């Protein structure tokens, strides 16, 4: 799995968009495009910035089950990876500082201490990789 892990990580790092999913109050999946994660630790942990007041945060509070999806479409080749796991909402200042970027004041007017700014931490438990008309399921330790 190690070689494929590196291949997946390299593909993820080249993407500018990630799709995240949550479960709504009627138990339907909701999918949203987000900017790529601010921080990634292997294929296990992914950190995103979002508004505390967002619908997604509400949904993750009610049901932390989540998946994230990255894909790359070349001229001939399509590659995708879906990771399943749990999403946590982090509001502590250390987590907020960890992924803050200078231009974020566009979204969070009060800066890094803005109460409407929080961090989504996704922890993956398994995944499914697609490349060259083949799929492979894998677990993440």
Q: How would you characterize this protein structure?
A:
With 141 residues, the chain is of the alpha+beta class. Helices cover 19% and strands 48% of the residues. The chain is built from 3 helices and 8 strands; from the N terminus they run αββββαββαββ. Strands 1, 2, 3, 4, 5, 6, 7 and 8 form an 8-stranded antiparallel sheet that branches. The radius of gyration is 16 Å and the shape is globular. The protein starts with a helix and ends with a strand. The model has no long low-confidence stretch (mean pLDDT 95).
Task: List the defining traits of the structure above.
3 helices; alpha+beta; single chain
Instruction: Bin the strand percentage.
Output: over 45%
Poorly predicted sequence stretches spanning 5 or more consecutive residues: none
Describe the largest sheet.
8 strands, antiparallel
Distance between the termini: 12 Å
Overall 3D form: globular
Brief characterization of the structure:
This protein is an alpha+beta fold and 141 residues long. The protein is 19% helix and 48% strand. Strand 5 (65-73) and strand 6 form a beta hairpin.
């Amino acid at each position: 799995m190690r070689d494929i892990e590196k291949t997946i990580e390299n593909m993820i790092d080249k993407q500018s968009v990630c799709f995240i999913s949550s479960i709504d109050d009627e138990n339907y999946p909701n999918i949203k495009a987000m900017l790529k994660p601010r921080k990634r630790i292997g294929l296990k942990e992914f950190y995103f910035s979002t508004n505390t007041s967002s619908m997604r945060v509400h949904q993750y509070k009610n049901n932390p089950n989540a998946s994230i999806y990255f894909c790359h479409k070349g001229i001939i080749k399509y590659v995708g990876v879906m990771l399943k796991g749990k999403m946590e909402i982090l509001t502590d200042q250390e987590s907020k500082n960890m992924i803050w970027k200078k231009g974020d004041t566009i979204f969070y007017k009060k800066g890094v201490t803005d109460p409407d700014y929080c961090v989504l931490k996704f922890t993956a438990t398994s995944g499914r990789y697609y490349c060259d008309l083949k799929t492979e399921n894998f677990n993440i330790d």
